[in-house]
Amino acid sequence: MNYFRYKLIAPSGEVSSGTTKLPYEDLMSAISHLERDGSLTLYVKKLGNLRSFITKLGSFQFRKKMKRTMQAELMSNLSLMLRSGITLTVALEEIADSMQNSEIKSDFKNIILSVQAGTPFSEAAEKYSHIFPMAVIHLIKIGEETGRLDEMLDSGAQHLKRVQGIISDTKHALIYPAVVFVVLGAGFIFWVYYVAPKIIDLFRDMEVELPAITVFVMKVSYFFRDYIFYILFIMLILIISVLSIYKGIKWVKRGMDALILKLPVAGTIVSASTLAFISEYFSLLMNAGVDLLHSMRILKNSISNEIYREKLEEIRKSLKKGESIADSFKGGKVFPSYVIRMINIGEMSGTLSEQLASVAGEYRNKLSSLVEVIGKMLEPIILVVAGVLFGVIIVGLLLPIYDLVSQVSG
């Protein structure tokens, strides 16, 4: 890709100038591209390395990654058009015209230009991993070699939809409990910070003798009222610090990843999610004809949990030594016996991709079941926690009123 500075006259007579990025080395190709809509080029110059770098910095933006659901839709539409007999370049142009995001649309048009210039589609798409994930690139390569590009793109679309399902279920299972307790905590803080102090101050003005539970609520209330901003600030700093350390220091991340896997509920969710993803991705790579060593490297770079990353690296080294796939997956407690047994069956029968797809399906179902179970488990827990928290507050505020009524009646 090179940067070109240009000045041209549009068919309407309007003069425009600017800088654009094109997949060409020579000026004639750049001019042909600029004049494709009938414009007349007045001036065009290819920028040198330094000027290109400065231009790139000046136009720098955070690259917006295409959503996985949009990627799947793109692959599915492209597959459908190719199956209908539409040529690849026309199909790509149709998809580009329907895109809303200008940055992604610009990158997609660069892919089209590369394809029109004779670059293989897989090679042109490989430079834009935020549009075409690496797993899909491998499928596109196989499709180009076998003449089944439409089938491979459809397989890629189905894969992305399944991966999105895994991620959605995982997020729902992990985030839902957190959101519930955050809302519960916010309600509690509102009561002790805003509501309770007003009522307690009223009791004190009336010089009512306060019972022990009301005194406790009063102390908690005043503590939150006096230090709420300090508490929130410290919590924010702690969260930022923990996240920074988690991402920046490998041994800390490894320790936390190992701890998460040992937790009763979160560990089960993360484990099921990771195993579903690895099985799904591994099945796709086997279908695409990617060799085992390369597949292990891709899998390792596709997941974030350090424990699984280390195990996949060990598997890659074992495979390099000539061990069987099933034997390489053994050892430790990372991969359950069920997974190893299915891999062994697939390896022995020559149906590894199908067996891995079956494993991925099992863990996707397990994740879906976990989401439902967690929702049902949370209901009684929320009722108990909310009952205790707000019960203490309400009793603490009602007791003095009851005493007042008793005194008046007496």
Secondary structure elements and pairings:
Blueprint: E1 2-9, E2 15-22, H1 27-34, E3 40-46, H2 49-58, H3 68-83, H4 88-97, H5 102-116, H6 121-126, H7 134-146, H8 149-205, H9 212-248, H10 250-262, H11 266-287, H12 292-302, H13 306-320, H14 325-329, H15 337-349, H16 352-409
Helix pairs in contact: 3-4, 3-8, 4-5, 7-8, 8-9, 8-11, 8-16, 9-10, 9-16, 10-11, 11-12, 11-16, 12-13, 15-16
Short summary:
With 410 residues, the chain is mainly alpha-helical. It contains 16 helices and 3 strands.
Verbal overview:
The protein is mainly alpha-helical and 410 residues long. Among the domains are: 2-58, no CATH class; 68-132, no CATH class; 266-367, Type II secretion system (T2SS), domain F (Receptor-associated Protein, Up-down Bundle), CATH 1.20.81.30. Helices cover 75% and strands 6% of the residues. It has a 3-stranded antiparallel sheet, covered by helices on one side. Helix 8 (149-205) runs antiparallel to helix 9 (212-248) and helix 12 (292-302) packs antiparallel against helix 13. Mean pLDDT is 83; it is low at 57-62.
